[in-house]
UniProtKB/TrEMBL annotation:
This is SCOC. Belongs to the SCOC family. It is a peripheral membrane protein. Positive regulator of amino acid starvation-induced autophagy. Keywords: Coiled coil, Cytoplasm, Golgi apparatus, Membrane. It comes from the Eukaryota. Pfam families: DUF2205. Gene3D superfamilies: 1.20.5.170. Signal peptide: none annotated. It is found in: Cytoplasm, Cytosol; Golgi apparatus membrane; Golgi apparatus, trans-Golgi network. One of its GO terms (cellular component) is cytosol.
Length: 54
């Protein structure tokens, strides 16, 4: 009984590790996508704050 529980727990840990790696990879892809969108958008470009003073 105890050995079966340990095997189940070990399998669960492996599954969670695999899911974690997958999510990290997806996060990197999404982060790069967001970075690309931000660099392409004028909204996020740094602008001269002096020209915006009234």
């Amino acid at each position: 009984m105890m050995n079966a529980d340990m095997d189940d727990l070990s399998a669960r840990v492996d599954a969670v590790k695999e899911e974690n790696l997958k999510l990290k990879s997806e996060n990197q892809v999404l982060g790069q996508y967001i970075e690309n969108l931000m660099s392409a958008s004028s909204v996020f470009q740094t602008s001269d704050t002096k020209s915006k003073r009234k």
